[in-house]
Amino acid sequence: MHTELAEFLMNTPEGQEAKDIVGRCVHCGFCTATCPTYQLLGDELDSPRGRIYLMKQVLEGQAVTEKTQLHLDRCLSCRNCETTCPSGVEYGRLVDIGRKIVDDQVPRPWTQKLVRTALKEGLTSPLFAPAMKLGQWFRPLLPETLKNKVPAAQDSGTWPQRPHATRVLLLAGCVQPAMLPNINSATARVLDALQIQTLVADKAGCCGAIRYHLNDHAGGLDDMRRNIDAWWPWVEQGVEAIIMNASGCGATVKEYGHKLRHDPQYAERAARISAMTYDVSEYLLPHVARLQGLLSPSKTGSMVFHPPCTLQHGQKMKGVVEDLMTRLGFGVSVPAEGHLCCGSAGTYSVLQPKLAYELRDRKLAAIEQVCPNPDTPVASANIGCITHLQSGTQRQLLHWIELIDAALVDD
Ligand code: SF4
Ligand code: SF4
Predict the structure, then answer these.
(1) How far does CA 67 lie from the centroid of its chain?
(2) 28 CB within 6 A, ligand 1
């Protein structure tokens, strides 16, 4: 589709990028079939093709309304449409640009602004950990809606202290250490068993996705620069890789090079950081043979795997975790509609609860169908999906790395 950029977007990098992306869309509509919001709402304007058309109008300077904003808000940014698209339309990048332009033109009511600011600042604040602890103490007294967001307190076990010649950095994440700390320590223990030392840079924090996806692009880019500054001394000292165990963060850090490509001070380092960033599953793949020997076969049982969108669509890593776990001896089932979002989608479950919970329940029903045994754990690869799905079931939800950790033969 050809787009005539409005004057205010001409000669801007985001205008040109958005125009190029829209230009690749041939309007075929293949993407509508796999779009979760189109499946739920059946409205063309809640499909990728419809949203691309709305954004083309925005880019051309046509009147932007609250209706445009609503249809873009309802998008999960799951990028399922990218996987389906035969023309290589980078919808995720387009919707980030489109939403920002729309938000600059359509002021939100103060209630929405308040919630968005609370999410942006609250989730990335150092006060999040003490607030979560407080929430966990009073969890039994919390109303159901809040309880859904506060997982029960968790023992994270010990963090390995042995030094190893091979060292990697781990992004601890902004909410993960407070909400589900065992994911990080399990990752460190599995790597330690392979004689790889896990380091966490003190000053690294949120990957930038929260602010960026809430249309605070400047704030998101600042988060990215802060992480690069925190990691760079370790990169210079020869760490082998930067490991992500939350696929949402991984998808973002792998984009640092693209996001900061016009920043003369950071472009080169950002590209290097992205190039050495791995989801923990892809980092472990070359170590499978050694890892097999470190697991107790009696502890590698059945599991259901829910692949997060940020892993399969964002990082294009469809099937990697399933393959890894199968080769390690686990019996892996994947529910039908494995390509569909569970509704978590970063802050989406707070901002669009109705759609988010419909998608959650649809996912949980598919999980029950593929594996009705309540004792079989359900694993995923992103803390958002884990906590969102956990809020609707009594079954155990966890990160797949925790299953490997639990299966390690005792020293
Ligand atoms: S599948 Fe791709 S080319 Fe076809 S309408 Fe969707 S985004 Fe456009
Ligand atoms: S990102 Fe997901 S919800 Fe948004 S248009 Fe694409 S498939 Fe639909």
Answers:
(1) 27
(2) yes
